[in-house]
Amino acid sequence: VGISWKDAVSYAKWAGKRLPREVEWEKAARGADGREYPWGNIQPDSMKAVYNQDPNTGAPAPVGNRKEGVSPYGCYDMAGNVWEWCEDWYEEAKFRVVRGGSWLNHHYILRSAYRSCSYPEGKDNNVGFRCAKDA
Predict the structure, then answer these.
(1) Confidence at residue 135, expressed as pLDDT on a 0 to 100 scale
(2) pTM of this structure
(3) CB of 107 within 8 A of CB of 61?
(4) What is the mean pLDDT of residues 77-97?
(5) Which CATH superfamily is domain 5-58+70-128 in?
C-alpha cells in the first residue's frame, strides 16, 4: 500500500510480471460464473472482506486474512482491504483504474464489477497492487 501506479509497474517489471489488465482482474474476482463478489452473490460480512472501517482507527489487514472471501481462482482480498492498481487508463492521460474497494468503503463498492480510478502518482494508504503474468 502507499505505492504509486508507476512504482507498482516498476516493481512488477522487476519481478518479471506486470499489473493485471482490468478485464483480467475482474475475471479473477468474478470467476467463470460472473458472481457479484469473489465468494458468490451474498453481500460481504467481516469474515469475507475488510471494509467499512473508521478512517481514524482502521487499517488494511494482512494479505489473505479473510479466508472466506477467496475467489474461484484462489485469489484473496479482491473485495475490500485495499484498492488495486490495474494497467488500464480510466480517463486517457489522467487517471488509472483501481478495482476491489478498500477498508474504507461500503459494501456496494466491493462488488467485483465496480470500477474506480486514482491519480497515477497517488500514494494512498488504501491503494495497493497485485502482479499478473502471461501464461
Answers:
(1) 85
(2) 0.95
(3) no
(4) 95
(5) paralog of FGE (formylglycine-generating enzyme) (3.90.1580.10)
